[in-house]
Automatic annotation (TrEMBL):
GO terms for cellular component: nucleus. Pfam families: Rtf2. GO terms for biological process: DNA replication termination. InterPro entries: Rtf2. It comes from the Eukaryota. This is Rtf2.
Length: 249
């Protein structure tokens, strides 16, 4: 999975974290935290710890931010286009952000992500959140839930209830894998689901209606997009690796 783009972005993330917020990073490093965990626990824009900096928001790429910081960034970019940063250029308004609910467990002075259902900590699993309710939980938990539901379901879109708050959601397009270090299979998964949400359902990441594009051949294009996406989704996307293989071949 050696994705060059991903590696570069990861390096930049870590470097900026080191340069600007060395206090939190070095403290966490001293406590034995891995780079991956530190990135997960930090705002993707400011590098500040997410813990006790509520509200926290997430984007469709699986990056988490301190809401205040990312809103300030969006505002700054509206006033001065030169401030737009490549990795955040998809963030233009609140419609591109979803408030998320993280469960924390403080161990040895470090606040860790904890899955409210499986109780796994952030060194044991990848995390995901649901676009519908914003609950953050173990990605493995949702993968297993999907597998168990799929047995009795023939359709592509599987309805389920959030294991944390019980609100209804739909696999896969409500599922965002939190991806602090740009893993390419997670990136593909999140992009695919967002494309479906945007092009087929005409919804923003925060599930608000999008304004329709004024295009001459809109009908034809939209149908084509839709067919293409539905065809793509027919192939099982349980496993991010499969998505990656498919795209590469
Ligand atoms: Zn929920």
């Amino acid at each position: 999975m050696g994705n060059d783009g991903g590696t570069i972005a990861k390096r930049q993330d870590i470097l900026s974290l080191h340069n600007s917020k060395s206090t939190f990073t070095s403290f966490a490093e001293d406590k034995g935290e891995s780079k991956e965990q530190i990135l997960l626990q930090s705002c993707a824009l400011s590098g500040l710890p997410l813990y006790k900096n509520n509200p926290i928001v997430g984007d469709f790429k699986g990056k988490l931010y301190i809401k205040e910081k990312i809103l300030q960034y969006i505002l700054d970019c509206k006033l001065d286009k030169l401030k737009i940063q490549l990795q955040f250029q998809h963030l233009k308004s609140l419609k591109d952000l979803r408030t998320v609910k993280i469960t924390w467990d403080v161990i040895n002075d470090i606040a860790h992500f904890q899955c409210p259902v499986t109780k796994e900590l952030d060194n044991k699993t990848s995390y995901s959140y649901l676009r519908s309710c914003g609950c953050v939980m173990s990605y493995r938990l949702l993968k297993e839930l999907k597998k168990s539901l799929k047995a009795g379901d023939t359709g592509d879109q599987i309805e389920a209830n959030c294991p944390v708050c019980n609100q209804e959601f739909t696999f896969d397009y409500d599922l965002v894998i939190i991806n602090p270090s740009n893993k390419s299979d997670y990136s593909e998964f999140n992009e695919e689901n967002y494309k479906y949400l945007k092009n087929v359902l005409h919804l923003s990441h925060a599930k608000e209606p999008l304004k329709k594009k004024r295009k001459k051949s809109e009908g034809d294009d939209a149908d084509e997009d839709k067919d293409d996406l539905i065809r793509k989704r027919k192939i099982d996307i349980d496993d991010g690796l499969e998505v990656e293989k498919r795209i590469r071949t």
